[in-house]
Amino acid sequence: MSQTIAFGVDVGGSGIKGAPVDLATGELTAPRQKILTPQPATPDAVVSVIGELIAGFELAADVPIGLSFPSPIVQGAVGWMANLDQSWVGVNLADAVEAGTGRRPTVVNDADAAGYAEIAFGAAKGHPGTVAVTTLGTGIGVALITEGKLWPNAELGHLQINGRDAENWAAASAKEREGLTFEKWAKRLQRYFTEVDRLLWPDLIVVGGGISRRAHKFLPLLDLRPPIVPAALRNTAGIVGAAVLAGQSAGIATLPE
Ligand code: BGC
After folding, report:
1. What is the pLDDT of residue 2?
2. Most CB atoms within 10 A, among 2, 21, 140, 243?
3. pLDDT of residue 204
4. Nearest protein Cα to ligand 1, atom 8
């Protein structure tokens, strides 16, 4: 059975989540476990939580591990860090996790992981043209997919809008921090997605992150040129995408064309 399963870990600004994933269906084979992100979220503290999550499941030694991480990943290392401790910058992720847990993960930016999951099993599957898969959480993540191929590390959550970093103003965390109603927050999202559309002309925008569970409260308030739909995998997309990539690196899963 371990042949068709990989374990996905999704590191976020507020929680670190993990679950085993059936690579044929994209479904979790056991309930997702979540541990609050330690503060400060230094490499040692986060790696120790990743180890705890992996240890919480009875995984065979050959089950590949995929790690979805909230930063651009350049040649395996953290290129820049917005929402975890700054001491992550320059750290090689697979080396750090292997040193702390004994298991070497396949690593991917969290929005890109969500993008892979939505291509493989969700709202971007088989969609022609360019799809922007976005995640609204502590930050804003964006994966750009054209004809099934992904452009990594797009980092469009950091577009400047009115001289300010867009995610500080329009991420789900800004809604929570400032106590914004869905109506007020939707005005910011309208600005943000209009800018994304003005620059990239996507054929479809997919919205993920935990808050996409309540997509019916804000997506109908947006008026955009391209269709905008909730992610199919909601907040498991990071786990599933990382697991699919890990399965592919291990040669036991194929990525969709
Ligand atoms: C990070 C991105 C990440 C996004 C969502 C941003 O702050 O720079 O790498 O994809 O947050 O977590």
Report:
1. 44
2. 243
3. 97
4. 71
Residues of the chain with CATH 3.30.420.40: 2-112+236-249, 126-231
| Structural tokens at position 136 | 């609204």
CATH number, span 2-112+236-249:
3.30.420.40
Mean pLDDT of each 10-residue bin along the chain, 257 residues long = 82 97 95 97 98 95 97 97 98 98 98 95 92 96 93 96 95 98 98 98 96 97 98 92 96 74
* pLDDT for the residue 255: 67
How many A from CA of 188 to the centre of ligand 1? 18
| Residue 111 CB–ligand 1 contact under 6 Å | yes
165 CA to middle of ligand 1, Å?
12
Protein residue whose Cα sits closest to atom 6 of ligand 1: 139
- Look up the CATH architecture of domain 126-231: 2-Layer Sandwich (3.30)
157 lines ligand 1 (CB under 6 A): yes
Index of the ligand 1 atom closest to the CA of residue 71? 9
